[in-house]
Amino acid sequence: MECKLICSDIDGTLLDVNRHLSKETIAAVQRVKSKIPFLLISSRMPESMRLLQTELGTMETPLIAYNGALILGSEGNIIQSTEIPYWITDAICNCIPEFKLHFSLYHQDEWIVPRMDFWAKREMNNTRVSPKVSPLVDTLALWKQHQKGAHKIMAMGDSEYLDWVEQFISKNYSNQVNAYRSKDTYLEISNNQLDKASALAKLLSTEYPNLSMDEVMAFGDNYNDQTMLESVGWGIAVANAKPEILFSIKTHTLTNHQHGVAFAIGQHC
Prior knowledge:
Elements: E1 5-8, H1 23-32, E2 38-41, H2 46-56, E3 63-65, E4 70-72, E5 78-81, H3 86-93, E6 101-107, E7 110-113, H4 118-127, E8 132-133, H5 136-146, E9 152-157, H6 159-173, E10 177-183, E11 186-191, H7 196-207, E12 216-220, H8 226-231, E13 234-238, H9 243-248, E14 251-253, H10 260-268
Parallel strand pairs: 1-2, 1-12, 2-3, 7-8, 12-13, 13-14
Antiparallel strand pairs: 3-4, 4-5, 6-7, 6-9, 9-11, 10-11
Helix pairs in contact: 1-10, 3-5
């Protein structure tokens, strides 16, 4: 079956080790985008993803942010929004003393940090987006007034404290919340009613109703990419992917630093 749509994870997949789009990747996407839409699907927030869309010349395409918790159509309209309920957001952020970990809260294009510490500055450098600074207690109090939940919570800090938060979530909210380690020092938390595969299927039904998952080529490297890679016609793991992903996904390309997405597009499109 012919490939009619391409989607890619961002960090560890599309970007090189310096978190940049290489000229090879930009050229590959621009070569095919007029006949094959190229979509970004990531745990990142929309604002950060739009910066990459601008570089790729794909601003007209929809995007899937926060691992599927927020799906935006080609006009910027919200197709689907799935939050972690406020009361669970509050419980997670208070399950361990604040000084032991950094908790970033995300909602649509909001990114709120309790202080401009090492973790906030590191993420700002990685994503090229500036956060709003507000004490965690104030942010949670404001969100309580509006019963507003998070599209994503990012807990960052020492591995042992993240282990504790992971166990707290597993014990109390495993049927509602998903938490996975994107790095040893990063715990990404979202509603578990969705994943990248279900979000992609929803997007296709809304924006590309004549396309099936079998006609999609997808790229990824991490645990949160697995269901997407398994659900599409061409699921391709970059060579630097987690060992479990390389084992379960049989089609591989070069590493992200070797422009693996561009190489595979050149091979198959």
